[in-house]
Design goal:
mainly alpha; 3-stranded antiparallel sheet; 12 helices; 64% helix; elongated
């Protein structure tokens, strides 16, 4: 019978943590990464092995251990983190409300590994800053977050996109996540300031947010909001202006609110 491959071991590792294996999951991971016998049979840990282990540790709320596992992956002599590894590392840092760590991880991914953030990473970055109320870092990264998210939305809700089949729908789902990212950021900027720093930054950040959305969405998105100085109960929302292509002629709907 053929010897098990690393794919088989990764499958068992995934099944163990999903079943709440706990210590058994950790034992199997250590066996995979340190067993000389497995190496003699050509079985050695890959990036997915580390990713599965981090998933299990995060699910078990062992966040510090998940962060250490990511460091182990970085220090591995023959492996390097992939995009999903960084997604998990960002998730762990976000749960810990470590905004400095969030920023450091994302910058390292871009500069040291030549990987680009996706909508999930920007969402975790923004959520981490919002949860920890780190308005300085949110202000610093706002341009990058809005440029990515607003630029991705495009003509998501046009009828032509809906006719594009599974590929078009997958793209629409991704762009909806970008929409949610922008909408949640706007709602945060419409919340009541909790410090002198927030009160000083809010008007400037709101104005810049609106300008960036208008610039990078090419008119597809509109920001609907009120002056936060007048009311603290207002919740902002974004409106996607319907694409009026050839298939949309005769439509009387000019825009579509998604909040």
């Amino acid at each position: 019978a053929p010897s098990p491959s690393i794919i088989s071991y990764n499958t068992v590792l995934t099944a163990l943590w999903r079943a709440g294996g706990g210590e058994k999951t950790e034992q199997l991971f250590r066996h995979i990464t340190s067993s000389d016998r497995l190496k003699q049979h050509g079985v050695s840990a890959d990036v997915h092995t580390f990713n599965v282990s981090m998933e299990g540790l995060i699910a078990a709320k062992k966040i510090e251990e998940a962060a250490k596992r990511f460091c182990e992956l970085e220090e591995h002599p023959s492996l390097a983190p992939d995009s999903y590894s960084f997604t998990l590392a960002l998730k762990a840092a976000g749960i810990q409300r470590d905004t400095e760590g969030l920023e450091r991880i994302l910058l390292k991914m871009i500069t040291s590994y030549d990987l680009l953030p996706d909508e999930h990473m920007y969402a975790m970055l923004a959520k981490g800053f919002v949860t920890a109320r780190d308005v300085r870092r949110l202000d610093k990264w706002m341009k990058h977050i809005v440029k990515f998210a607003a630029g991705k939305i495009g003509k998501t809700f046009s009828r032509r996109r809906r006719k594009a089949g599974n590929k078009g729908m997958k793209k629409a789902v991704r762009e909806m996540k970008c929409y949610s990212l922008l909408d949640n950021t706007l709602k945060f900027l419409n919340s009541k300031p909790r410090s002198t720093l927030e009160a000083a930054l809010w008007p400037k950040m709101m104005l810049r947010f609106k300008e960036l959305v208008n610039m990078y969405s090419d008119g597809v998105l509109l920001v609907q909001t009120r002056d936060v100085a007048q009311t603290s109960q207002t919740r902002g929302n974004l409106t996607v202006v319907a694409d009026r292509g050839e298939d949309d002629k005769g439509s009387t709907e000019n825009d579509r609110s998604l909040s």
